[in-house]
Amino acid sequence: SLREVNQPPNKWIVYEQILRIPYYFVYNRYTDEFHCFGLVMNRYQPLSMNGLGVWLEEAELGLGLWEGEYQGLTRQWLRWYDRDNNWLPTPEEREKQRADSAELEVAKLRQLLLAQGISLPNDQ
């Protein structure tokens, strides 16, 4: 057709037929529709979704819709999950986990010092 001659191919065609990207995801943030396609015999076919989203065996990761707050906005977001259906932590969640772990470690060390009769300036 004239469109094929006069215009570059659309993203779907480029990913499917030229680059052969194994997965193609479509997410509409206005309707929260999420569709996943996998390359099967050189054509994208719809992938079946589980309760969270779609599991990508080769990547050992899943991609699904998560409802929660991220960057100050509460809504549905695309988010990766692991084999046990645990959402992978965001950078902010990882930082909070690290800070919580550090605080716990400081509290343990403080208790060990107190048990040895050593008090710290903040213990008064």
From TrEMBL:
Among PANTHER family, the record links this protein to:
SLR1095 PROTEIN, SLR1612 PROTEIN
> Know the name of this protein?
Uncharacterized protein
Which species is listed as the source?
A: Aphanizomenon flos-aquae WA102
